[in-house]
Amino acid sequence: MPAPRVSVIIRTRNEESWVGHCLDMVFAQDYPDFEVILVDNNSTDHTLQVIRRYPVSQVVTIDAYKPGLSLNLGIRASTGALIACLSSHCIPQRTDWLSSLVAGLDDPSIAGVYGRQLPLAFSGAVDKRDLLTVFGLDRRVQTRDYFFHNANSMIRRDVWEQFPFDEQLTNIEDRYWGKAVTEAGWRLLYEPEAAVYHHHGINQANDGERAGGVSAMLDLLERDLVTALPDSLKPENCNVVAVAPVLGEPRDLQGMDLLAGLLRQLGQAGYVRSIYTFSESDAVRETTERAGARFIRRPEALRARDRTLGEVLQHALAEIERGGDYPQTVLYVNYLCPFRPPSLFDELVTEQQYKGLDTVFPGFIDYNDHWANAAPGTYRRITESIRPGPDQPALYRSLYGLGCATKASVVRRGQLLGERVGILPIHDHIYTLRCTDRRPEPSPPSLRDSQSPVGWTAELFLREFRP
Prior knowledge:
Blueprint: E1 6-12, H1 19-26, E2 34-40, H2 47-51, E3 58-61, H3 67-76, E4 82-87, E5 90-92, H4 97-104, E6 110-118, H5 125-134, E7 140-142, E8 152-156, H6 157-162, H7 173-183, E9 187-198, H8 208-221, H9 223-226, E10 240-246, E11 252-253, E12 256-257, H10 258-268, E13 274-279, H11 282-290, E14 294-297, H12 309-322, E15 329-332, H13 344-355, E16 359-366, E17 371-375, E18 378-381, E19 395-398, E20 404-407, H14 408-411, E21 421-426, H15 455-465
Parallel strand pairs: 1-2, 1-4, 2-3, 6-9, 10-13, 10-15, 13-14, 16-21
Antiparallel strand pairs: 4-8, 5-9, 6-8, 7-9, 11-12, 15-20, 16-19, 16-20, 17-18
């Protein structure tokens, strides 16, 4: 039986330094029947001039490069029963490279075979590590593991006709294809004898932009896996304690008991396991106990206004743990913030747990131009440029008082914010309002009976929305 014809599909873009070395070894192969199809993505160097020196069957051009589309175009222009995929900066190690790939498809249950990738003497340390770690010496048949790599691979044309490469993907089209065929009952083969040199490795020296693109594609491919957490890390199993510090006597707003309202909101949160107030006020203690929450008396040393919030929470946490409650997350809340988005507390905890963040808080998005008072009478612009609306780089005004979820390990160090921070965007200005003791002068008539400069706005809001 004659050997099946092989079509070698090589993708290029500005590869004049590599494509000649690649083609030298391809055309030195001992396999009797193959053609070479080049798919070029608008090379602007001498790649195409180098290609003309070799007996390439056809050059296909592509303008907007996507890896699956590029391969599909090359395969459609080819005639082989077997399709070898090779990157133009990959150089076959031996003259039996193509024969080794073909032999891997002798088993009719194998849909595709991929070969070993080796670093060059001058490959970077990261690339050497990755290639030598991923591509080992043992031949391996994969039934569930769908890892596949088109820098050095071969597939059956009849399988490709059923499962062409996804033409919309920007990365890892090979793994998407591997997942599709293995789920359909096919198997994949890793053949270390079919080796190529690949100088920049599979992760391109940990290039951040490429890693981000690959990660995004993997998130889509393995959405069930990458969104999974061990049970103990899931928000519903995380011990979240809410702490509401109150300095002095509690205040109300237009007859609205702000502290009682906050405690009621916290009690309705699905992921808040226990609620504490931290105050020297007996009135706060009574309100706390009526709500079924727990009261911690604030010591004299922490009643001064110059004490940091980190110090206050650190002491509160120490008291909480002294009572036998050991939280993973401390949710700081300020009762003087009267309006919050629904489900905010649970969203903070979910964001923190599923993204592995130290701290998550709401931030009001602001696209306006901002200036800082650098010195008396001197102002310095702190935004990058003046552009209309959302074209302006967004600034986030922190709204810690609405709710700030921080790992207990950070709070134990006397800090509110950890190193890994997440921000939940807030768009409605009503959520930025906070009651304070400061009043603008002169006060408008509607404000003189209020306890804060937001009183008149809050009163209008309450008339409309208060239950």
